[in-house]
Each structure stands twice: as C-alpha cells, then as structure tokens.
Amino acid sequence: MNSFDGIIEFVAVAESQGFSSAAKQLGCSTSHISRQISKLEKRLGVTLFARSTRQVSLTDAAQVYYQRCRELVNGLEQANEGLKTQQINLSGTLRVSAAGAFAEEHVAAALMAFSSSYPELTIEMDFNSRFVNFIEDGIDFAIRYGELKDSGLMARKLVDRPMAAAASYDYLSRYGQPTHPTQLKQHSCIVTNNEHWVFEHNNNTITTRVHGRWKSNNSHAAISACEQGLGIAYMPKSSLSKGLESGSLIPVLEDFWGRGSSSWIVYQNQRFLPLRARLAIDYLVKYFSDWD
What we know:
It comes from Vibrio olivae. Residues 10-59 form the HTH lysR-type domain. The protein has helices at residues 7-16, 19-26, 30-44, 60-84, 101-115, 134-137, 169-175, 219-227, 237-246, 275-287, and strands at residues 49-51, 56-58, 92-98, 121-127, 141-145, 154-161, 163-167, 189-191, 196-201, 204-209, 214-215, 232-236, 250-252, 261-267. By secondary structure, the chain is of the alpha/beta class. The chain has three domains: 2-84, Winged helix-like DNA-binding domain superfamily/Winged helix DNA-binding domain (Arc Repressor Mutant, subunit A, Orthogonal Bundle); 92-161 and 262-287, D-Maltodextrin-Binding Protein, domain 2 (3-Layer(aba) Sandwich); 163-259, D-Maltodextrin-Binding Protein, domain 2 (3-Layer(aba) Sandwich). The strands form four sheets. It has a five-stranded mixed beta sheet with strand order 4-3-5-14-6, with helices on one face. Strands 11-8-12-7-13 form a five-stranded mixed beta sheet. Strand 1 and strand 2 (56-58) form a beta hairpin. Helix 1 (7-16) crosses helix 4 (60-84). The chain is elongated, with a radius of gyration of 25 Å.
C-alpha cells in the first residue's frame, strides 16, 4: 500500500505547478507536500519535478507517470463520488465570486434555493468584479458577464442576455424620444462600463458613442438614475425588466436592441472542484435552462 503514498500530492503539484498552490488545493501544509514528493521520488529513484523560482514543472521522465497517476486519481474520485451521491449530505463552504445585478438578484436567489436542500452547507458570495485567483482566493467558481478571455479556465453558459434601451417618462417628455441610435449623441445617456453602444438592425451593426450626466459601474445606481430622469439607459433587458413592467421606464429604440452577451459560470478545473461546487454548477445550469 505504500506504493500509493504521495500520488495525490504528486498529481496536485503537477496540475497546479506549485507546492504551495497544491497545499492550498488539498488543505494541507506546503511542508507535507514537499515531504510526500521527496519520499515518492526516493522510492521511485527518479526526479519528478524541475523546480525554478517561478514554477514547478514535470521532468520528461515524469510525464507518462503523471498520465497513469491521473487515471488512478480519476478512478478514486469517481468511486468516492459514487458513494456520496447515494446519500448526499453536502457540508463545508461554497465560495462564489459574482458581479452585477443579474448575479445579485437571480443567481443569489438560485443558490439560496440550492442551499435549502443542504442545511449543513454554507455559501459565501463575494460581489466583486475583480480578477479572481481561484486557488489563492479559495473561490470555487465565478459568475461573469460578457465575452470571456482565453485564460485556460473552464466555462459553462448560464443565459443569453439581450439588450434593451429605456428612459423615464419625465426625460422623454422633456427631450423627446430618439428614433435612431445616431440620435443618442444629442441625448444624455446613462453610462455604465462602455461608452460605445452596439445596436442591431436588419442584420447590420450600429455602434454609437454616447455621453451623459451619470456614469456608474453599478447597475442598480444606473437604473435608479434612469428612473430619476437623468438620461437613457442601454443595458441587459433582465436588468431593466422591473422598471419596464412597472411603467417607471419606457422602452426606447426597440427595433435596434442588440443581442448583447451572455452570463457564464467560470471555474478553474473540473478535477479540482469539490462535489458541492459541481452540484451547485449543475443546479444553476438547469435552473436557468428555460429562463427568460
């Protein structure tokens, strides 16, 4: 049985490319990782890692060995999860990074519903749009909106979020209603993260640079400014839906509303995800599968 000592640590270091990051992933000390790797290398009679000040990488001799060990670890994980799913009782803390009104209103509500089935599970949501280091920050997954950069992270789409433009009755009664996106240059616009608004009409894209009296990267503040008559807002329709339904906001330029972007679940690696994170992700994807 000693032949299996250090295998889990070896795979973790190989995939995270660092002893300290592997220790954080496995919830143990860096010294424990180092001891286990040293014992494994001594037992095998081969050097497994090339160490530098910046990262740790597999030696040529260890490449094939890693693939075989990865298969062993996958089998062990599947066996463990097979037992867990027979009688799931999730515990521990699920840590989620999120940003924007959609996450605050809809994703949070979905995770509350998810947690109601698991009374021993704690959920921490950090509403911050900053870049997330999943290992160092201890984040299981993040909710992000827009085009994703090719960062090597895994991603699953939650929903497509088409755009909508709106303004208050008071603003439109004073300044008139635009009939074409180019007319927005003569209007005060509520600017969030982008001054270049993209509209669509007859399969053509119309990009208009706007300006206005109110700029904010907080969607709630932007919507409130729009309802107070400070200008025209152009945001995902889901963010404006309450105002449009209540009548506090009037739709503008409906024939030109763009397709917008999507909201995504982003995470580091399926192999690193604890069961609570995997089940939460699956739940969210199913929850929003028919969301309008």
